[in-house]
Design brief:
Length: 318
């Protein structure tokens, strides 16, 4: 008999960690889009005399300090997730390692955030800050999904060529995100009016980003049709369809924001959309394979017990 996966504390905390990592990206976008990147002009303190924002720093200090507080909350969630994985019965090495990786990423975010402030919002460091968030989203998503599975080896649910197509689509999705970060670093909304930009031509970088988006759409639509053609598991087909829908919505926001000269609300929505595209990408990969739950093994029956007749339950009354 296969064990039925039940909700556990680790699963709930893993989902909370995933959501909090996405929220950190959104609040980080709010910091940049409101020009609050140096609302706390130093690190790890907010000012030379205070760890918290002061009244003189105004709304920019509140926004920047709020983002730092969310980072602390995220660290506490990660710590709780790691402890829950350690205490989970039976103890599972995969959950411990993934929760540890998610937890170690939080101080890494803090260090990069500090370097960002101390370098006056260097656009390359800001971009690295965002990319680490994408990595943590991948780790916490994997942790969340692993809480629903057993520890048996993975089993592919579709043929090799379709898995290769999905892998190529994932690489292109990651490239779209990376080039999107470079686009951000070359345009406005630097987080502070005096912050430097990368010096790259925004139009050329935006065109490269758009080209990759078109390639990603083509690959994802092809994967969706291919999965339908081979009667792949419904969950895989749905995941591909959701991915196409999410990236089309994200692409629409991207084009509208470009031709309307990057209004802050649309840019913020685009940042959230980047997280959702990445999660949808990971979801496709997860639905193309399976990891069966372990089979519960009880003690082997004795020869005498095996020879005894098994009592039958009375037939149900209609």
């Amino acid at each position: 008999m296969t064990e039925v996966s039940k909700p556990t504390l680790v699963r709930h905390l893993a989902l909370a960690s995933l959501i909090a990592n996405i929220a950190l990206v959104v609040t980080g976008a709010a910091v940049r889009l409101t020009g609050s990147g140096l609302g706390c002009p130093t690190w790890p303190r907010c000012t030379d005399q205070s760890y918290t924002t002061t009244q003189e720093m105004g709304v920019h200090g509140v926004i920047e300090f709020g983002n730092r507080l969310l980072g602390i909350a995220l660290g506490l969630i990660a710590l709780a997730t790691f402890v829950a994985a350690l205490l989970h019965k039976p103890r599972r090495r995969s959950l411990i390692l993934l929760s540890l990786a998610a937890g170690l990423g939080i101080p890494g975010q803090g260090v990069i955030g500090g370097i960002t402030v101390l370098t006056d919002l260097n656009p390359w460091v800001v971009g690295l800050h965002f990319l680490l968030s994408m990595a943590l989203i991948a780790v916490t998503y994997a942790l969340w999904q692993r809480t629903k599975e057993g520890d048996a080896p993975t089993r592919p649910l579709v043929a090799g060529p379709l898995r290769h197509l999905a892998a190529l689509m994932t690489v292109v999705s990651a490239a779209v995100i990376v080039v999107g970060v470079i686009v951000t670093g070359s345009g406005p909304h630097a987080g502070d009016e005096d912050a430097k930009r990368t010096g790259l031509d925004p139009a050329e970088i935006s065109q490269a980003h758009a080209d990759l988006v078109f390639l990603l759409i083509g690959l994802s639509v092809a994967l969706w049709f291919a999965l339908r053609a081979v009667n792949a598991p419904p969950a895989a087909v749905r995941a591909a369809a959701v991915f196409v829908a999410v990236e089309l919505a994200q692409g629409l926001i991207g084009f509208v924001q470009y031709f309307t000269h990057l209004p802050v609300l649309l840019v913020g929505a685009h940042m959230l959309g980047a997280c959702l595209v990445w999660v949808a990408t990971l979801n496709v990969l997860w639905r193309l394979r399976d990891r069966p739950a372990p089979v519960s093994a009880g003690p082997a029956p004795s020869a005498d017990a095996a020879a005894e007749p098994v009592p039958q339950s009375p037939a149900p009354v209609a």
